[in-house]
Amino acid sequence: MAPAASSRLDCAQDQPPPADSVVSSPPSAVSRDEMTGDVDATEGEHDSSGRNSDVAAPMVRSKLSCNFSNHQSNTCTMEGDVRIHGKPATVYVVKASTYLPENSTIKLRPYARKWEDQVMQLVREVTMRSIPPAAGADGDDVTPPECSVRHDVPAVVFSTGGYNRNFFHVMTDVIIPLYLTARVYNGRVQLLATDYEPKWIAKYKFVLAALSAYPVIDMDSEDTVRCFPSAHVGLESHKELGIIPGLSRNGYTMVTFREFIRAAYSLQRPRVAPVSRSSGRKPRLVLILRRNSRQLKNEAEAIAAGTEVGFEVVAAGPDDVSDLERFAGVANSCDVLMGVHGAGLANMLFLPDNGTVVQIIPWGELKWPCRHSFGDPVAPMGLRYLEYEATAEETTLNETYPRDHAVFTDPLAIHRQGFDKVWNIFINGQHVILDIKRFRGFMEQLYQAITTE
Fold this sequence. Notes:
The protein is an alpha/beta fold. It has helices at 117-120, 167-182, 198-203, 205-211, 254-264, 299-309, 318-322, 324-332, 367-374, 406-409, 411-415, 419-427, 436-450, and strands spanning 34-42, 51-52, 59-67, 75-85, 90-93, 105-108, 126-130, 149-151, 155-159, 190-194, 217-218, 225-233, 275-276, 284-288, 312-316, 336-340, 356-361, 384-389, 451-452.
């Protein structure tokens, strides 16, 4: 499969991306990738609760800077007199001493998937207004609202919108970027969410509580003007389900992220210990079972094959996986996580170090995009990766297309017809029927690889 911006998205999504994905350009109000403006600002006295309504303060200097050059996300950081007004989704940076009219208004959507226009339209836009020192300067007559509440901790503004029901995307587009952006404050940071969804906040409450000592603020519903000494709008992001250590200013890696996740969910097993075949103990394997596209149609036989080889197989359907608090512990108790390509494989994050991830790749020349989503991220997490690639005999496409069709004779010809074709046929249009004899041989090799004499 030829590398393309759109083809990279398929393998983790259970909903189609746009036919052609284009990297978003910076808003027209910004004249360059890096924009910086100094501001003179006020900063009040604060109490130990992290907020204070007293707005009187000494004068300080601060900066507003925005980065639109990152492929994953647009971000702005600011410090000084920063006022966030929730309902209009507007951030005011007050008394900018180097105010420039062309950079007085900046807009961005605080979600780390900016090249995908279709999903970005589901994310609320946040406006940043840089206010000049004198009212009416350069024709700007914006009067910033007065502070209702003053906080003594930084703010981080992000979105719980986008692909918020897909675990891979939640981790890639929100949780890992939140970790990169907010972890440095060791809990002394206030999170504000646009596109606020209470169910999402509840589902990921342990991660959010590990990042911030304060409840997440619903930015959409309140008319309060909250003032902060500094703020980030948008999240730092590096790659799909990963961190590039050289880009992390705080030395974060996927190993440190997984340590953070284990602590957040109180997971007790940091590392897989090799199982001796003579001990009588069985290595534990969790098999992720899908119920929409890419089902494992003969799952009972697959489970039996794994059991006969010597594994303790734990079957995990969508209801099991969706109970995140419980399933994190299940995955952490296992030595191997296996499943047909899809978002459920992102639960590898909960495996102990030295665990093994097995991806079953469906028919259709999908090895490259599937490895991109769930193969390449494995080693940086301290895990091992194996894959089982389905043959033309192991797909339900045999029920739809004759064997002389390009689907079987030249799958790359389908790829050349565009991503929609690939999505509809190979990603969303088939299930897997394992050749149990072949699969059993694979499982025997896997068992030998992860056990000792």
